[in-house]
Write a structure and sequence with these properties.
The chain is of the alpha+beta class and about 775 residues long. The protein has 23 helices and 20 strands. The strands form five sheets. The protein has a seven-stranded antiparallel β-sheet with strand order 9-12-15-10-4-18-17, with no helix packed on it. Strands 5-16-19-20 form a four-stranded antiparallel β-sheet, covered by helices on one side. Helix 3 packs parallel to helix 7, helix 8 packs across helix 9 and helix 21 runs antiparallel to helix 22. The longest helix is centred in the C-terminal third of the chain and has 36 residues.
Length: about 775
């Protein structure tokens, strides 16, 4: 006997009779819902606007009006064949595809904007012929893709309101679309009347759902690991910049220190300008980005954002270094000795010389987007190996600084790959003092007038180490690394920065900055601390130089970028360790003694920022305890995740190992899920009455056989259906259990549980024997 209910249960086929029912299939009929069309149009417009805001483009000026025209035309002609329009759309799409390939060749390293433009063009053309619901579904997908492209292009929080707006529109869109699929939207006499549905009456529900989705999204965002990016070897870079004049790389032009077309480096150490007035710092540009710098200037900068950096780790964005101390500032003694490097005309990639270090390094990829005008010096983390830059040539000086043939202008983007050395304190502590001749020649220079006095003061500080330290220990300063650490810490703690910048007097013509800092003023400007440490190290035979650059800036967890201001620029001391290279030390008060290191995990940096905000409201003992516990947990997790990701970059063996570990972890997770689900089922069954428990055990067994009970079936109906798919003995046991369950549940009769359990056990045993 053919059982229609059973067929619908297992095959989920829609049974239809006649041509009329076929014509009402939601997948082929014309979509008449105006509300759905308006909501889809709003999603598309939001996606287009998101691209414009994220990429500073002007697609909206023509795309949004055409979207309205296309939506109106499509609704008006929704029941027509529109053959001519379809041909025109096809021709337009082919033209858009050709323009897309042309844009790809123009943007060799970043095709996101070209893809966005193609999608917008296709959506505009597609919008003139959307008669059916599935056509509207294509528009929804295009709007979602545009939002995703905008998310990858966005570098500020201006994208956040657009994202929230898109979510607010998407929720009712999905509801209306689902109602249309179910046939609940009233049409012209072809569907059954549904209950009146108005979006305005559902606003409280949508608001609650919107709040829940946003809240859950923020929680997931906080706990989401921040994996190292850029697994694909294509990196963002601006459009090509033509260089007309020959570029030698010798000139550095800082826009804030230029007079009458000539660079004003103020490296002579004078304290006055051309008018005889005291020399002042430019309020917008850092004075230290020049071939010569004068640290006898006074004043302060007004904060402004100069660049945004996307980096795998927090770092010091190094700009240039100085090797010669002038008494009141620094200069690059070999400024004319630079090497120019050209790139291939087919690629933005420029290869640099590998770092002369033998220690372990880590590849760090950084992408810089310039927001405000900067000098023609290219910020990068130490030891850059590759750079993707829009000019055909760059220059590299003897101090490892990168120079551009043009100033870094607004919206310029480039990418740098650096091999940053690991800072292993144990290894650096064992470094020898056999310095190469070039190192001794350029990085031990110190004016003879102050050499003896500074050396005596430095040796005195080191000799008094055991007496002046806070904790009494037998540790001695027997390595270069420990000496540098102690001197940096000593300067940081025993000298100060004046609260008012005007309180520090100018140095006269015969006064030396380091001497005045140590013996007269007992402090100075922040950069003076680094100058003093550098000269003190040189006085005792430790090679050092002054390095200028930008601090990491403020990390924005929503954009994943470091926002860097002009006031983040400062100078530090770089010390040379044979075989291991140059490492920085920061003696400036209120700065970390050792700058951010690549060893520090950034996997859960967003969660760390959230915890720091919460910890500000908790007592110190509680904060300390949780910092210790959670710090250890997330540090281990971060290192484990970073190690696992790194496997896939280590050739075929690493990929195979990663796949094996992934498969094993997936199997163990599945096994754990099965065991947990069985435990939950057993625990739930143990709380049921005996008859109910036996009945549910039987249904669970049948479901595992692929013959589960449909929710709409009664126990007796299921027993009848089961007779067609089970053996006679099994079907009889199922029928007895169903009959006893109905009699107990609805008739109040007491079943013979002993006999039923015996039959049930026999059924399971026979089933096991059949499987074997």
């Amino acid at each position: 006997m053919f059982n229609l209910t059973r067929l619908n249960r297992f095959w989920h086929l829609r049974v239809s009779y006649g041509r009329e029912d076929h014509q009402e299939s939601p997948s082929v009929e014309v979509e008449d819902s105006i509300s759905l069309r308006v909501l889809v149009l709003a999603l598309v417009i939001t996606g287009i606007a998101a691209v414009d805001i994220a990429a500073n483009t002007t697609f909206s000026l023509w795309a949004i009006p055409l979207s309205f025209v296309g939506a109106g035309w499509s609704y008006y002609r929704r029941r027509q064949a529109n053959i001519t329009v379809k041909f025109c759309i096809a021709i337009g799409m082919l033209m858009a595809l050709g323009a897309f390939f042309g844009n790809i060749f123009g943007e060799l390293n970043d095709t996101r904007l070209a893809l966005a433009e193609l999608l917008i063009q296709l959506q505009i053309l597609h919008g003139f012929d959307v008669p059916r619901r599935k056509n509207l579904g294509y528009s929804i997908v295009i709007g979602l893709i545009l939002l995703g492209v905008a998310a990858t292009l966005s570098q500020t929080l201006a994208f956040a309101p657009i994202l929230l707006l898109f979510l607010a529109i998407a929720l009712p869109t999905l509801v209306v679309n689902y109602r249309s699929q179910l046939g609940l939207v009233k049409a012209k006499g072809k569907r059954q009347k549904a209950k009146p549905f108005k979006l305005t009456k559902q606003l409280p529900t949508y608001f609650l759902l919107f709040t829940v989705v946003v809240g859950l999204g923020l929680v997931v965002f906080a706990f989401l690991p921040r994996f190292p990016g850029y697994q694909l070897r294509t990196f963002p870079v601006s459009s090509p910049i033509e260089v007309k004049n020959s570029f030698t790389g010798r000139s550095i032009i800082n826009p804030g220190y230029v007079r009458q077309g000539n660079a004003d480096n103020q490296g002579n150490g004078t304290a006055s300008d051309s008018n005889g007035q005291p020399g002042k710092l430019d309020s917008g540009f850092y004075y230290g980005f020049n071939s010569k710098i004068n640290q006898n200037l006074r004043g302060e900068m007004k904060p402004k954002v100069v660049m945004r950096v996307r980096s795998q780790v927090e770092g010091f964005w190094r700009v240039l270094a100085f090797d010669r101390y002038t008494g009141k500032g620094w200069e690059v003694s070999r400024n004319d000795d630079v090497a120019t490097i050209k790139r291939s005309p087919w690629s933005y990639q420029i290869y640099l010389s590998p770092p002369p270090v033998s220690g372990k390094t880590k590849e760090v990829i950084q992408t810089y987007t310039i927001v405000s005008e900067l000098p023609n010096l290219i910020p990068a983390m130490s030891y850059p190996r590759e750079i993707y830059f829009p000019t055909p040539v760059i220059a590299v000086d003897k101090e490892g600084g990168l120079r551009s043939p043009v100033g870094l202008g607004e919206d310029l983007t480039y990418t740098v790959i650096s091999d940053v050395p690991y800072r292993d304190r144990t290894l650096l502590g064992t470094a020898n003092t056999n310095y190469p001749p070039d190192i001794e020649k350029y990085y031990l220079q110190i004016p003879p007038e102050i050499s003896t006095k500074v050396r005596q003061r430095t040796e005195e500080i080191l000799a008094n180490y055991n007496r002046e330290r806070v904790g009494k220990s037998q540790k001695t300063l027997d390595s270069t690394y420990e000496k540098v650490l102690y001197l940096a810490q000593y300067i940081k703690q025993n000298y100060s920065i004046p609260e008012n910048p005007l309180d520090l007097p100018f140095f006269d013509d015969k006064e030396d900055l380091v001497e005045a800092f140590l013996f007269k003023h007992k402090g100075g400007y922040p950069d003076h601390f680094s100058t003093v440490l550098t000269v003190m190290l040189r006085s005792i035979g430790i090679p050092a130089r002054l390095v200028a650059g930008f601090g990491a800036g403020e990390f924005n967890p929503f954009t994943g970028m470091y926002v860097v201001k002009n006031t983040d620029a400062y100078a530090m001391t770089e010390v040379y360790f044979p075989k291991y290279g140059w490492f920085t030390f920061d003696p400036i008060p209120n700065h970390p003694l050792i700058p951010p290191s690549i060893e520090e995990t950034q996997t859960f940096s967003v969660l760390r920022q959230f915890w720091q905000w919460v910890a500000g409201w908790l007592p110190s003992p509680v904060t300390g305890f949780f910092n210790h516990v959670f710090g250890a947990i997330f540090s281990w997790l971060g290192k484990a995740i970073a190690w696992f990701i790194a496997l896939f970059t280590q050739g075929w063996l690493g990929i195979l190992t990663g796949l094996i570990l992934t498969t094993t972890a997936a199997f163990l997770a599945w096994l754990g899920w099965v065991q947990w689900r069985d435990w939950v089922n057993r625990r739930g069954l143990s709380k049921l009455p005996p008859m109910e428990r036996l009945y549910q055990q039987m249904l669970l067994w049948a479901n595992q056989k692929g013959l589960g009970k449909h929710p709409a079936q009664t126990p007796l109906e299921y027993a009848k259906v089961a007779a067609e798919y089970h053996t006679t003995n099994d079907a009889q046991v199922i029928n007895d259990i169903c009959q006893a369950y109905v009699s107990w549940r609805y008739g109040g009769n007491t079943p013979n549980l002993h006999k039923l359990r015996q039959k049930w056990q026999e059924l399971k045993n026979s089933s096991r024997h059949k499987q074997k």
